[in-house]
Amino acid sequence: MRKLTFAILGVVILATASAADTKLKLESLPPAVQATVREQTKHATLVGLSKEVEKGKTMYEVETKVNGKARDLMLDATGKITSVEEEVDITAIPVGARQAIEKKATGGAVKRVEILTLGATVAYEAAIQIKGRNSEFTVNADGSVHK
């Protein structure tokens, strides 16, 4: 009985995850979104496309690789880029942000750093591992905690 319960729970979780994030092909996107994807992947490798509906608003996630680093874009239905997450080397971010990340990772390791751009707002997200525990946090250019 217990195995059946876990199996049903697994199916429900998978169904919920797939309903929230639908994988797509380029040809199935709205024309304006296709145009932006084509423009943004001229010098990148397209890894995946998906559609998300959040609070009734349809958004398209474009997963790419640029020079071996991950870059994810969120587009609205008009093809406008609403946010960008771009993996970078820690040396490519402002000193204040880098120092805050390195301090937070003391005794562990910085696994990934991303520049997060949302409109005119830019922040820096780090994935760190300390004593086998993974965590993420976001700071501003000056190293202050991003809200």
Helix segment tally: 3
Query: How many distinct beta strands?
Result: 8
* Strand order of the biggest β-sheet: 1-2-3-4-5-6-7-8
Helix content: 25-40%
Strand content: 35-45%
Kindly report the average pLDDT value.
Answer: 87
The computed structural class is alpha+beta
C-alpha geometry: elongated
State the distance separating the first and last CA atoms.
Answer: 45 Å
Question: How much is the radius of gyration in Å?
Answer: 18 Å
The major sheet is characterized as:
8 strands, antiparallel
Low-confidence stretches: 1-19
The topology string of helices and strands comes to HEHEEEEHEEE
Model description:
The structure is a single chain. This protein has 147 residues and is α+β, with helices and mostly antiparallel strands. It is 27% helix and 45% strand. It has helices at 2-20, 31-40, 95-104, and strands at residues 21-23, 45-54, 57-66, 69-76, 81-88, 109-118, 121-130, 133-139. The protein has an eight-stranded antiparallel β-sheet with strand order 1-2-3-4-5-6-7-8. A hairpin with a 4-residue loop joins β4 (69-76) and β5 (81-88). Mean pLDDT is 87; it is low at 1-19.
Task: Summarize this entry quickly.
By secondary structure, the protein is of the alpha+beta class. The protein has helices at 2-20, 31-40, 95-104, and strands at 21-23, 45-54, 57-66, 69-76, 81-88, 109-118, 121-130, 133-139. An eight-stranded antiparallel beta sheet has the order 1-2-3-4-5-6-7-8.
Features:
8-stranded antiparallel beta sheet; about 150 residues; 3 helices; alpha+beta; about 25% helix
